[in-house]
Amino acid sequence: LPHGDCALSRLLRRLLAARRSLxxxxxxxxxxxxxxxxxxxxxxxxRVRVVTDAQYMGLRGSxxxxxxxxxxxxxHDQEGGYMHHKFAVVDGRVLxxxxxxxxxxxxxxxxxxxxVVEDAEYVKPFLDEFERIWEEYNPANYRFFP
Amino acid sequence: LPHGDCALSRLLRRLLAARRSLxxxxxxxxxxxxxxxxxxxxxxxxRVRVVTDAQYMGLRGSxxxxxxxxxxxxxHDQEGGYMHHKFAVVDGRVLxxxxxxxxxxxxxxxxxxxxVVEDAEYVKPFLDEFERIWEEYNPANYRFFP
Lengths: 146, 146
Description:
Two copies of one chain form a homodimer.
Chain A: H1 4-16, E1 21-26, H2 32-43, E2 47-52, H3 54-57, H4 64-69, E3 73-76, E4 86-90, E5 94-98, H5 104-109, E6 114-117, H6 120-136
Parallel strand pairs in A: 1-2, 2-3
Antiparallel strand pairs in A: 1-4, 4-5, 5-6
Helix pairs in contact in A: 1-2
Organism (chains A, B): Pluvianellus socialis
GO cellular component, one term (chains A, B): mitochondrion
InterPro entries (chains A, B): PLD-like_dom (IPR025202), PLD_domain (IPR051406), PLipase_D/transphosphatidylase (IPR001736)
């Protein structure tokens, strides 16, 4: 549970190890360094998919617009509640999860935790949840006139 | 990653299994059911310690006042950043962690995750962090005139 630059560089190292796929499921994503890393992976041909919260993604500083601009697939909730997860899965086998949103405020100033887990027993429910949310938030299912 | 009442009853079951100690480290704690469970454990003689966020604990619906009224030790941060953790440790060996704050909104309406982990390798860093925060937030160390 390291702080600040140490937490950021550990997280970057884990992400940049991705070779095939990266699933990201984040309430808040505004860290420029992490945004850059994700765009870099996309540029390298890693399949990146992002799920985020509709209320947060439009706030100033959000990285979501830049990710979309780079051609990365992003989906968001259509519900009253928050999409409050904060996890990522690298290459289908490394789960990064905890209390940390990917924001500079959280990385620099908050008390946070990040768990990195490689046991399939823990990783699978998160991957399953990601696929469930990915389908549920498919734009083809949006209901503009409910 | 179950929702609503199912998530709540699983969490309650894990908490109510406590026999000796319960450490709680939560950004937001406003669920009346979980508040009742924690007071019940305290009444049974389980050593309960709570760490929370100063900005959130005074909000309407917070359970922190009721916990203190019941005689439970609560400590909070004195920093600008958030105490953003959301974890609990039962009897020093079961870690409950994830994205979930203990609020009715989160339990009923949000997409959240809760991990229950018993491997000492994962539990120990959280227990260590709790003890570190517990000492750091000791009221004897408050600086009213910094």
